[in-house]
Amino acid sequence: MDKVAIITGGSRGIGRAAARRLAHSGYAVCINYRERRDAAEQLCDELTAAGCRAMTWQADVADASAVGAMANAVREAFGPISLLVSNAGIAGQMQFQDVTEAQWNRYFDVNVKGAFNAVQAVLPDMLHAHAGSIVTVSSMWGLRGASCEVVYSATKAALIGLTRSLAMELAPTGIRVNCVCPGVINTDMVQVLGQETLDELAHMTPLGRLGTPEDIAAAICYFASDESSFVTGQVLTADGGFIL
Ligand code: NAP
Q1: Number of helices and strands (H, E) in the chain?
Q2: Interatomic CA distance for residues 135 and 84, integer angstroms
C-alpha cells in the first residue's frame, strides 16, 4: 500500500506536527481542518515546497458526508488511504451542572462520532488492502478523572474503548488500531487556561515541562510506522509522567 494519510485537525497543534512529520517520512498527507483554512494552507505550502505531497480539505468531522467526500478526494489525489490519524477534538472547562444538552452532543459529535465517521470513511481501502493503521488521539483525561472536564473526559474514555474494541475486530484483517493519550501539550487548545495555570501544570508534570506537539507527533508516527507492526489496541500515554 502506498503511504497515504488523513490527519483530522491537521491545521494546528498536535495534528499539524503529525502531518509535518508524516509528510517528511514519505506520506502523502491530507491536512483536514474545520475553520482555519489559512493555517492548513500555510502548512500545505510549506510541505509541498519541501518536496512532500500534501493537500488540504475542509470538513467538520462530525459531518459524515463531509468526511466521506474528503476520503474520496484523497483517493482521487493520492490513491487508497493507508493511515488515519483521528486527532480533531474540542475541549473546554465547565461545571457539570452547567453543561447543556447541546454542549454534551457537540463534544460527542466531534470527539467520538468524528472518529467513527473518519474510520468508516477510510476502512474500505484498508480492508481491501488487508493493511493499514488507525491512530486515535485521546487524552490522559480519558484514563483519569478530570474535574470540570467531565464531558471531555467521557468522550476521551469512549475513544479508548473504541480503539481497543476496533483493534480486536480488525486484527484478523491486518489493520492496526492504537491510541495516544497526551498530557498537557502547549497548543492553542490550552491557552485559555492562562499562563499562570500553564506554569503550574508544567510544575506538576514530573518531567518539568509542558509537552510539545512534536512530542505527540513522535508517538503517533511510531504507531503509524512498521516499527509497531506487532502492536495493536494499545494506549500510549505521553504526558511527561503526569498521571503516574
Ligand atoms: P488545537 O490546537 O485546538 O487544534 C485543534 C485542531 O482540530 C485544529 O486543527 C482544528 O481545526 C481541528 N478541529 C476542531 N474541531 C474540528 C472539527 N469539528 N472538524 C475538523 N477539525 C476540527 O488542539 P490540540 O491541542 O492540537 O489537540 C489535538 C487533539 O489532541 C484533540 O483531540 C485534543 O483533545 C487532544 N489532546 C490535546 C491536549 C493538549 O493539552 N493540547 C491534551 C490531551 C489531548 P481548525 O484549525 O480549522 O480550527
Answers
A1: 9, 7
A2: 6
Q: Ligand 1 mean position to 33 CA, how many Å?
A: 9
Amino acid at 211: G
pTM of the model: 0.99
Atom 46 in ligand 1: residue holding the nearest Cα: 36
Ligand 1 near 60 CB (within 6 A): yes
Q: Indicate which atom in ligand 1 lies nearest the CA of residue 141.
A: 43
Q: Whose CA is nearest to atom 17 of ligand 1?
A: 60
- The CA distance from 16 to 218, in Å, is 12
**Running DSSP on this structure, what letter comes out for residue 183?**
-
| DSSP 3-state percent helix, strand, coil across the chain (nearest 5) | 50, 15, 30
Report the C-alpha gap between 8 and 81 in whole angstroms.
13
Q: How confident is the model at residue 1 (pLDDT cuts 50, 70, 90)?
A: confident
Helix, strand, or coil (residue 9): coil
Which residues lie closer than 8 Å to 227 by C-beta, 6 or more apart?
none
Q: Which of 32, 189, 216 most suits a substitution to test ligand 1, by most atoms within 8 Å of the C-beta? A: 189
Structure confidence by residue, pLDDT tens digits, 153-167: 999 999 999 999 999
Contacts of 224 (CB under 8 A, 6+ apart): 5, 22, 27, 83, 85, 133, 135
Which atom of ligand 1 lies at the shortest distance from residue 13's CA? 26
φ, ψ (nearest 5 deg) of residue 103: -65, -45
